[in-house]
Design a protein that fits this description.
Layout: H1 2-21, E1 34-41, E2 47-53, E3 59-64, E4 69-75, E5 77-85, E6 88-96, E7 100-104, E8 119-122, E9 157-160, E10 164-167, E11 176-180, E12 185-186, E13 190-191, E14 197-199, E15 215-217, E16 222-225, E17 243-244, E18 250-253, E19 262-266, E20 272-277, E21 283-287, E22 298-302, E23 308-309
Parallel strand pairs: 1-7, 7-8
Antiparallel strand pairs: 1-4, 2-3, 2-5, 5-6, 9-12, 9-16, 10-11, 13-14, 14-15, 17-20, 17-23, 18-19, 20-21, 21-22
Length: about 325
């Protein structure tokens, strides 16, 4: 029944911009360039997305089978999206101003992590009903519509009750980022399932991605006001582990050779533990288990592809 309603809704919205826009010519602006939109479907069913451009006749229908990835080319601009996934329907807006990767996560539970703006993690069960959203987790920007998992009651505000130690990872055995006195106040943008609050420290972090950019406030260390309970629950790195944060798609091989079988393809925004480096320095052994991929494979990546975070300066030498 929902799929029938989805189809009717798509037809209605597809016709509306055509009647309204006519055949008006548009200037050759950057917004009208072509951009890649990559869809990854980790749900158990098909995902369908209709994109209807707000100021023109462009209409796209993007469909992807479960467990697959597809690449589409979409003209830049502002679109209304209608999305069907996990037996749910959501509508909202999608700004196509650069290449995007939209990752649809497993239907049960919550999204494993929020992702960066170009690698959004999408989970329709967490989306507020009847609101415009842009495939985005976290607090809504001031004056704009709420994002998926958005704030209820305003932005989350944390105020330290006493002196508070801030950590680089959400664990008291992790490295200390700083210590702040009572009254220290900050707006967290994420939380862990066990109550840690993450915030962006506002310092340059050219190589860090996603949750590695956050600094962490211990549970029950301060007063929380606003929509803290609605912050997205994210995956976070474990203490004491050197992680690989690939900046591009990276093959994980069964052995340290490009001719070996590919075990897994790490995408930007997916992380793995670096266990060690070969004596020649050409290959790194990685364990996907402590990362956020859901895989527990152990394999090899080319050392030249590494982008690391954590205690990585004294990695052991490992043999194939």
């Amino acid at each position: 029944m929902k799929r029938v309603f989805f189809s009717i809704l798509v037809i209605f919205l597809c016709l509306s911009p055509i009647f309204a826009s006519g055949a008006l010519a548009r200037a050759n602006t950057p917004e009208n360039n072509l951009f890649p939109v990559v869809l990854r479907n980790r749900t158990a069913g098909q995902v369908d997305i209709a994109l209807i451009r707000a100021d023109g006749p462009e209409i796209y229908w993007l469909s992807i089978a479960p467990g697959t990835e597809r690449r589409f080319t979409v003209q830049g601009g502002s679109y209304t999206h209608i999305t069907y996934a996990c037996s749910k329907i959501a509508t909202g807006t999608l700004e196509v101003t650069r290449g995007l990767r939209l990752i649809f996560t497993h239907c049960p539970g919550i999204a494993p992590n929020a992702g960066d703006p170009t690698i959004e993690k999408i989970h329709l069960s967490d989306s507020p009903s009847g609101k415009y959203w842009s495939y985005h987790y976290g607090p809504a920007k001031s004056g704009s519509a709420s994002g998926s998992g958005g704030i209820s009651g305003g932005a989350c505000q944390y105020t330290a009750n006493a002196e508070v130690t801030i950590y680089t990872r959400p664990d008291t055995s992790a490295d200390v980022f700083s210590t702040q006195g009572a009254g220290f106040s900050i707006q967290p943008i994420a939380r862990t399932s066990n109550g840690w609050l993450g915030f962006d420290p506002g310092v340059a972090q050219a190589a860090n991605i996603g949750p590695f950019r956050l600094r962490w406030l211990p549970p029950n260390s301060g007063t929380q006001t606003g929509g803290c309970s609605s912050l997205p629950v994210v995956w976070a790195p474990l203490p004491g582990i050197c992680y690989d944060m690939p900046m591009f798609d990276t093959n994980v091989y069964t052995s340290p050779a490009t001719s070996a079988t590919v075990l897994f393809l790490l995408h930007m925004g997916e992380f793995a533990e670096v266990m060690g480096i070969t004596s020649g320095g050409d290959w790194a052994k990685v364990d996907l288990g402590p990362g956020n991929t859901g895989s527990h494979a152990v394999g090899w990546v080319e050392a030249a592809s590494l982008n690391v975070n954590g205690p990585c300066s004294s990695l052991p030498t490992v043999s194939p």
